[in-house]
Each structure stands twice: as C-alpha cells, then as structure tokens.
Write a structure and sequence with these properties.
The chain is of the alpha+beta class. It has six helices and ten strands, in the order αββαααβββαβββββα. The chain has one domain. A six-stranded mixed sheet has the order 5-6-2-1-8-9. Strands 4-3-7-10 form a four-stranded antiparallel sheet. The longest helix is centred in the C-terminal third of the chain and has 42 residues.
C-alpha cells in the first residue's frame, strides 16, 4: 500500500531529475503533443441504412487520451505531472470510454448535417478505445448522398491539433481549428435512385411484354375472323 502511494511521487521525482540531467523521458509535455501522431477520423455510410452516417474517431498519442480525460474531469488532475506531461495507463481508456462526459464531448465536437438539417448522433460503447477508437452513428432525416461533417476534437485543448480524415472512394481531408467542416460525398441517394430506376425499367419492360402479347393476340383473332368469313 505504501509502495503504491509512493509510485506517483517517485515517478514525478524521476522525471524532474531526468530533466535536470538533460536525459530524455518517455512522457511528452502536453503542449508539444499536437505535433505528434495525429488523431484520425473514418467516415462511411452504414451498409444497411442509407440514412445513417458512421464516424470512427481514434486518438493519435495515447497520452492525448489521458490529457482529454483530465480535461473532462474523468481522470484526476494529479495525472498531470509538474511539467504538464501525462502518462497513459490502460485503466485510463476504460474509465474514459465508459463515461458520460466522454460521450457528450464527442457529440459536441463531432457533428453531421445534410441540407442544413442536423443528424442525431449516438456514441457506441468502445471495446478497445486506445487501440481501435470509438464509433459514432448519426441518423439523418432521409437517405443522403452528401453530408457536412464537423470535427473539433482536441482543438479546444490546443488549436495546433490536426485530424486526418478518410471517407468513401478514397476521399481525404485534414481537419484543423481553422477548417473544422468538410462536405463528404456518400452516394446513398445515387444507389437508392439507381434501385428505383431499375425497378421502373423492369416495370416498363414487363408492361411492354404485356402490350406486345396483347397486340399479338389481337392479330391472331383478326386472322381467324378473316379465315371464317372467307
């Protein structure tokens, strides 16, 4: 028990000593991490529903996740060291992923709209937040071909953060504090329209077959009448 209580103190002293000796440490100051591995976002249309947009968010540096947890009040302020650095621990992801504060934060910072109408979002419970990220599903008023997606995650902590985003057909963009909204082509309405068009064409063909058949029947009947009268 005593050793457990001393660990944070010893770790802090070790970091301070390492800094004083000019020795590099694994923790990175919070202000420097926006220039490390960027967070990522993957945009897609739900394969089963053409009115649902799916967004997967994944943090870049794992200590960024810890920093966010501290900012949301999910993790204690003591997790930040004297120099502002944070250390990620596996328990951090579990605590953050299960919190209402984290879900609320994502729904504030990531938004989807189409034709000026907002799409209602939900955050799915993450299974491996640190490794695979978290999925959000946004239900729009109707099947969509295009959507405007806003991403502001972590830029409220530091405007230097960037988000690398990918979407359908190899589309890509980079979100930043000065560019937090991007229009994505999803193609759902195109597919739906193609389905309706195909159905219409099939109906037209079927109708044509019926008409041709009816016309043939009329010709046959006329021939028979002519043979009888002759």
């Amino acid at each position: 028990m005593v050793l457990h209580l001393l660990c944070p103190v010893l770790r802090t002293l070790a970091v301070v000593a390492a800094i004083g000796l000019g020795v590099g440490v694994t923790a990175v100051p919070a202000q420097a991490h926006p220039f490390g591995d960027p967070q990522t976002v993957a945009v897609s249309l739900d394969p089963a529903r053409s009115d649902v947009v799916r967004v997967r968010w994944k943090v870049g540096g794992l200590d960024d996740l810890t920093l966010l947890g501290v900012a949301l009040g999910v993790l204690p302020q003591s997790r930040k060291l004297l120099d502002g650095a944070t250390f990620f621990e596996p328990a951090d992801a579990m605590a953050i992923g299960a919190s209402a504060e984290f879900s609320g934060y994502l729904l504030r910072q990531i938004q989807v709209s189409t034709d000026g109408l907002s799409c209602a979002g939900i955050v799915e419970a993450p299974k491996e937040l640190a490794r695979t990220g978290v999925d959000l599903a946004f239900t729009c008023p109707e099947p969509i071909a295009k959507a405007d997606i806003t991403v502001r995650t972590l830029t409220d902590l530091n405007p230097a953060y960037r988000t690398l985003a990918t979407g359908p057909n190899g589309d890509r963009t980079v979100y930043s504090a000065g560019k937090d909204t991007h229009g994505w082509s999803l193609g759902s309405v195109t597919r739906a329209h193609a389905g309706r068009s195909a159905a219409i064409q099939l109906s037209a063909v079927a109708g044509g077959v019926v008409l041709v058949g009816a016309a043939g029947l009329v010709v046959v009947r006329r021939r028979r009448r002519q043979e009888v009268t002759a």
